[in-house]
Design goal:
This protein starts with 9 loop residues before the first helix and ends with a helix. Helix 2 crosses helix 6. With about 130 residues, the chain is mainly alpha-helical. It contains 8 helices and no strands. The radius of gyration is 14 Å and the shape is globular. About 20% of the residues are buried.
Length: about 130
């Protein structure tokens, strides 16, 4: 992750497409193992999990300043009716931070991603 602190966009500081792909893959793996949020992810078909994984990669790439257009639904549209609890949201955020720590992202990059995650909480938690 060379120049991770000197790159201008969050996309670049996350390692571009390759970095985001690796990060999201690890996050999804952690979600599947998570005691709190895992059952929701484990209930998905392989096809649904693969589609969700790709949409999260696209969402993160586009939202972090990358040369990608997000083609999925909004966070509100995606999560309405799912009754995501605050505990599930926190478990997912913990997985994101664990993956970022495992991949040795610098604290300012982790904090920026954490801030983005929390800015979406009201669109995700509906319980």
């Amino acid at each position: 992750m060379n120049n991770i602190l000197t790159s201008d966009t969050l996309y670049n500081r996350l390692g571009g497409k390759d970095g985001i792909d690796k990060l999201v893959d690890r996050i999804v793996d952690l979600h599947l193992q998570n005691d709190v949020a895992g059952p929701r992810y484990q209930a998905l078909s392989e096809e649904a999990t693969a589609r969700a994984r790709e949409k999260v990669k696209e969402f993160l790439a586009a939202g972090s300043g990358g040369p990608v257009e997000y083609t999925g639904r909004s966070m509100l549209e995606t999560h309405t009716g799912m009754n995501v609890s605050s505990a599930e949201f926190l478990a997912v955020v913990d997985d994101i931070m664990q993956a970022m720590n495992e991949m040795d992202y610098p604290r300012p990059v982790c904090d920026e991603v954490l801030g983005i995650a929390y800015s979406l909480k009201e669109e995700i938690v509906h319980k």
